[in-house]
Amino acid sequence: MKKLILSVLTFFVVLSASAHAVFLETALKGAKGKSHAVKVIYGEPDEHEEISKWWWYKEGMQVTLTLIKPDGSKESLTTTVQSDHLLATFVPDQEGVYHVSLHRDTERKERAKIQYQINAVATIHVGNATIGNAVSNINNELFVYADQASYKKNKEVSLTLYQKGKPAPHSFLQIIAPSGWIRWVETDDQGVARFTPEWKGKYFAEASKREKVEGKEFEEYSRATSMSFEVK
């Protein structure tokens, strides 16, 4: 019994430790021909850490985002350093669903056995077209996919966690509501996590996965990912 209690406590400590994450913060609706801003932030969705405190960022380091347009074409977005975030902008030139992704390995200390990897995705809907809202348009090694532009309050939400292109079953997503409410939801056999939102507004989802590797200078990949979606 003591061993079981310790295991449960350790489980929740590990989950709680992932509260700080890298997010792509942006408006989930855009307009064709108008500049759209995307922020890279670290911390909590409503509490950004100063860049100097970011464990994964070095002064002067160039962070590049990938913009995937509705037609599947890609473009690199260069970020500029602000006080507590990195900023990138783009101008949508077509209607449909755009994805902006961050995917990078952090610097690993010499002889460290774990390689940390950051994944973050933002989905922006421009106009009423749904073209571009496809799993195949996102190439991150770990990401959460929302198949709708927005969801309804008190109606079930389904989110799918993908790891290396395949659904990740029996994994946990952390859901953060606009009210600050936090809930852990487990994916089913098909990698789908379901829950019913009680508030309107922007929600965030986070997940992390570890993978043993061979033939590299390290033994394990530790990947983390985040995304946001809207509830009306």
TrEMBL record:
<dbReference type="InterPro" id="IPR019613">
    <property type="entry name" value="DUF4198"/>
</dbReference>
<protein>
    <submittedName>
        <fullName>DUF4198 domain-containing protein</fullName>
    </submittedName>
</protein>
<dbReference type="Pfam" id="PF10670">
    <property type="entry name" value="DUF4198"/>
</dbReference>
<feature type="signal peptide">
    <location>
        <begin position="1"/>
        <end position="21"/>
    </location>
</feature>
<keyword id="KW-0732">Signal</keyword>
